[in-house]
Specification:
Distance between the termini of chain B: 49 Å
Strand content of chain B: 15-25%
Order of helices and strands of chain B: EHHEEEHEHHHEEHHHHHH
Strand order of the largest sheet of chain B: 2-1-3-5-7
Number of strands of chain B: 7
Bound molecules: iron/sulfur cluster
Largest sheet of chain A: 4 strands, antiparallel
Oligomer: heterodimer
Helix content of chain A: 40-55%
Strand order of the largest sheet of chain A: 7-12-13-14
Radius of gyration of chain B: 19 Å
Number of helices of chain A: 13
Structural class of chain A: alpha+beta
Order of helices and strands of chain A: EEEHHHHHEEHEEEEHEEHHHHEEEHH
Largest interface: A-B, 69 and 63 residues
Shape of chain A: globular
Chain lengths: 415, 246
């Protein structure tokens, strides 16, 4: 017999799960990703490099800018182009905006209704309007950063190989500095709200992240190794899912906010680091649902860091000039931490500047295996001891903790 | 009387559904008239009997999508195809090749247990009452349409190219002045020429301008600028498959 979760709700994209029961025990869980494949790697083949980041942005709306930046980094590496620090800092501002927009959406609109016992944030707003409003305010600021850096709230085309179409103005940077400071107390409150969430799912034993906080040139894991994704990460396809599953050196691992805090707390900004230390023992438990608390701490990080960068750029001033690009044959990988975790764009480009090979691996695909394991653990714990409503509710909450973004997980290819 | 609203997401990037949440306080204005009965990205509530308005985003890319689309059509008074995926197919519909070959390239097998289909826009499968393109669409447009429906008036429509909005904003023409390939002249306006604000060319995300567009002359202009035919062909079909003929 099996229990079917037809479709996860309050997650992005279409997926469900099958919990297989044998002799009164949970035998297996399958996370079924039935969102249709969108074949992004095939889409980019033969396309001119200049147009590619705009196409890749369409993989996912919640983190479109992570996709454009990862794509741009891969293209620049393929051509051996180095951009000045100011351009990297501006890109980082966009990525920070994405963290704010995405985490706020997830925490306040998708997870908070579980904590307060509602079907959604709209219904929750009646009694807890203040909290929903705070979340929307943080989210709107994240979107402001995406709009200024990325060109618009969703699918902007301003992030380009070599620089930007349009550079932000002094007024825009000043607004970023001001608002990030003002929103910090809301983010601190979020940490309080989400620290009370119960432990759900498996315990993560292995973490993988990019080596810098939001972007980098290698991956790192909890064993300290620096590596390229194809060295230690194997992917396999499944008959019941359009998303593949991956293992790090054969082991199930986790990517995302929790992994970032666990492996890179030294890079955190002062207040975020302080908060991490306050909850350090909790985090050491490793339960995957702690991802939500980690996201709340990252709201603090993203706001502090936004202020820092805006100040630096305002003090130092910047040229606002793009680095010219000469297409040549090459290969490059872009590593970015999308809000949900490691994002890889890997291209080979021919001498005319057209894409000859493309491989993209998204965080939800990396997390697919641990998501399945988490549902299995949670189902084992609860099957037979909670009533069916609670059982299904907890299963959904467990999946939701990963903030899975299903649309983006379904076109993993190696040609 | 509150109107019953359903948001159905087929295969897509999630942007068109997400953009509804980005309406912020305007969303709360809409909720004075509408009750959300289905919106799986935002709510765990599912109350499926019938809908006054069904919003459908995404393309039909699986048999499941197709079933869901028919379900939405058969249970609603008005159906809105929202976003370029729904109206023209968007990027996924421009991927060439047959579904089995594509599956083989990605998953290493021609087997199709989950019934994937070649991506097609929903307008190809069912009659729709309103089609609002845009990748993503302009938030104000869906707000206007939903408000108009609630008040029983005909929603406004747009029928001018992106170029008009460039002129209104006094942006310098990137195509003529800088030789940047820009699809503004043949693309339906309504985005406030946001990409030209970034001094980049329009990539055509709102789909082709119905009626007066002249893709043949755009094609010639781009050729004269030195872009090869294959490049232009691909650019034209990115968001709207083969709909732009020249
Ligand atoms: S039209 Fe664009 S924004 Fe809307 S769902 Fe499709 S890809 Fe996403
Ligand atoms: S300018 Fe063109 S590509 Fe940009 S948003 Fe408008 S229609 Fe889309």
């Amino acid at each position: 017999m099996s229990i079917e979760i037809e479709a996860f709700t309050r997650v992005e994209g279409n997926g469900g799960a099958e919990i297989i029961i044998e002799n009164g025990e949970v035998k297996d869980v399958k996370v079924k990703i039935f969102e249709g494949p969108r074949f992004f790697e095939l889409l980019t083949l033969g396309r001119h490099y200049w147009d590619v980041p705009d196409l890749e942005a369409r993989i996912c709306a919640i983190c479109y800018l992570s996709h454009s930046v990862a794509s741009v980094l891969a293209i620049e590496r393929a051509f051996g182009v180095e951009v000045p620090e100011e351009i990297m800092l501006l890109r980082e501002l966009g990525l920070l905006g994405e963290v704010l927009e995405s985490h706020a959406l997830h925490l306040y609109l998708l997870v908070a209704p579980d904590l307060f016992g509602y079907a959604d944030a709209i219904r929750m707003a009646g009694k807890h309007g203040e909290i929903v409003k705070e979340g929307l305010t943080i989210k709107a600021f994240g979107n402001y950063l995406r709009e200024v850096i990325g060109g618009r709230e969703i699918h902007g085309i301003n992030v380009k190989p070599g620089g930007f179409g349009r550079y932000p103005t002094v007024e825009e940077l000043e607004r970023m500095e001001r608002q990030s400071e003002a929103l910090l107390k809301l983010a601190r409150r979020a940490v309080g709200i989400f620290s009370g969430q119960e432990y759900l799912g498996a315990k993560a034993e292995h973490y993988v992240t990019v080596n810098g906080y939001l972007y980098g040139d290698k991956l790192i894991a909890d064993d300290g190794e620096h590596f390229d994704y194809f060295q230690h990460i194997e992917e396999k396809t499944l008959p019941y899912s359009f998303a593949k599953q991956s293992r790090y050196k054969g082991e199930v691992f986790m990517v995302g906010a929790l992994s970032r805090l666990m492996l890179k707390y030294e890079m955190l900004t002062p207040m975020a680091k302080h908060l991490y230390e306050e909850y350090k023992e909790k985090f050491a438990q490793g339960y995957v649902s702690l991802n939500n608390l980690a996201q709340a701490i990252e709201l603090v990080y993203a706001l502090e860091r936004t202020g820092e960068i805006a100040r630096t750029l305002l003090d130092k001033g910047f040229e606002g000039e793009n680095v010219p690009i000469e297409p040549k044959e090459g290969e490059g990988i872009g590593y970015v931490e999308a809000p949900r975790g490691v994002l890889v764009h890997h291209y080979k480009i021919d001498e005319k500047g057209n894409i000859a090979y493309s491989n993209i691996i998204t965080p939800t695909a990396f997390n697919h295996a641990i998501m399945e394991l988490s549902l299995y653990e949670e189902a084992k714990k609860r099957y037979g001891s909670s009533d069916e409503m609670t059982f299904l509710q907890k299963m959904e909450e467990t999946v939701r903790a990963f903030d899975p973004c299903i649309s983006c997980s379904v076109h993993v290819v190696r040609l | 009387m509150m109107l019953k609203l359903g948001v159905f997401e087929l295969t897509d990037c999630g942007g068109c559904a997400l953009n509804i949440l980005f309406l912020y306080e305007k969303l709360f204005d809409l909720l004075e008239f509408y009750e959300i009965k289905e919106f799986h990205m935002a709510s765990s509530l599912k109350e499926h009997d019938s809908f006054d308005v069904a919003i459908v985003t995404g393309t039909v890319s699986t048999q499941r999508d197709l079933n869901l689309l028919h379900y939405a059509r058969n249970h609603s008074r008005y159906l809105i195809a929202l976003g370029t995926c729904a109206t023209h197919g968007d990027v996924q519909a421009s991927v060439e090749g047959k579904i089995r070959e594509k599956l083989e390239k990605v998953y290493g097998t021609k087997a199709n247990p989950m019934k994937a289909l070649d991506s097609t826009p929903i307008v190809q499968h069912v009659a729709v009452d309103y089609a609002l393109p845009g990748c993503p669409y302009d938030k104000d447009e869906i707000y206007q349409v939903l408000m108009s429906l609630a008040k029983g008036v005909e929603p406004p429509t747009k029928d001018y190219p992106v170029c008009v909005e460039c002129k209104l904003n006094e942006y310098e023409c990137v195509l003529v002045k800088r030789g940047i390939p820009c699809l503004g002249p043949i693309t339906l306006g309504g985005c406030n020429a946001v990409c030209i604000k970034s001094q980049l060319g329009c990539i055509g995300c709102r789909g082709p301008l119905p009626k007066e567009a002249n893709p043949a002359s755009e094609f010639e202009i781009l050729k004269e600028l030195g872009y090869d035919e294959e490049y232009i062909r691909r650019k034209f079909k990115t968001f709207a498959r083969g709909e732009l003929r020249w």
